[in-house]
Amino acid sequence: MGFYDAKPLLIIGNKNYSSWSLRAWLLLKAFNIDFDEQLIELFHPSATPILNEHAPTGKVPVLVYGQGDEKVTIWDTLAIAIHANDYLTDLDIWTGLSKSNTESDTSNRINSAYCQSIIAEMHSGLMGIRSDMPMNIRATAKIRPSAACLADIARIEHIFAECLTNRSSDSYLFGHFTAADAFFAPVVLRLQTYVKASGIILTPLTEQYCQTILNNPHVQAWQKAALKETRIIEEDEAGEILFVEGILAK
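Above: the chain sequence. Below: its structure as tokens.
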């Protein structure tokens, strides 16, 4: 087996709550990268030895493969995306196209640059929506959104509009599925949890894109697994819980 033929292991957190884990997991699934997954319990002592062995920051997700001196460790979701693009897939994750097409076509380079930019913006910012709307897939919850949260939603809707205007009704942000869709999928799940219950109105284009993401079979598989989880992590619960779906439903 060659060095880069070793099957990667993706270590993730609880699927109901771990938005960063979803980003890495969905990216690998969408680009047909074969991997094993190991789920740890967030904020639980059982996770400590696994994180101590594999995660330099003590956080998930982390992608590892190889043994001994040839072990490769990639932490942070953006680093995982870059590494996957460089070594683990023949497709370009920023455009969803073959790498030769991306390199030879100016319009694809423009899309690639935009894709990378909105991913970096998501990765380093939009703290208002993260703070007010933690990912909680099984819940429907009512919050009183802060000005920062509403500003983030407006910015996200602007990004969606710039990407999706004049595309088909079932289109991903750049037509083909890209890393941007993987990074914004948890945003869609946050909106699903809080928006309607909190009286927040989204544009039709945003609603359309949310449905496209929710129709993605990998997103549906993640949600199905999340609804089977029983752990409640108080640190990731927000607002007035109006309804709970899944195994914890009453």
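Strands lie at 9-12, 36-39, 62-65, 72-75, 139-142, 240-244.
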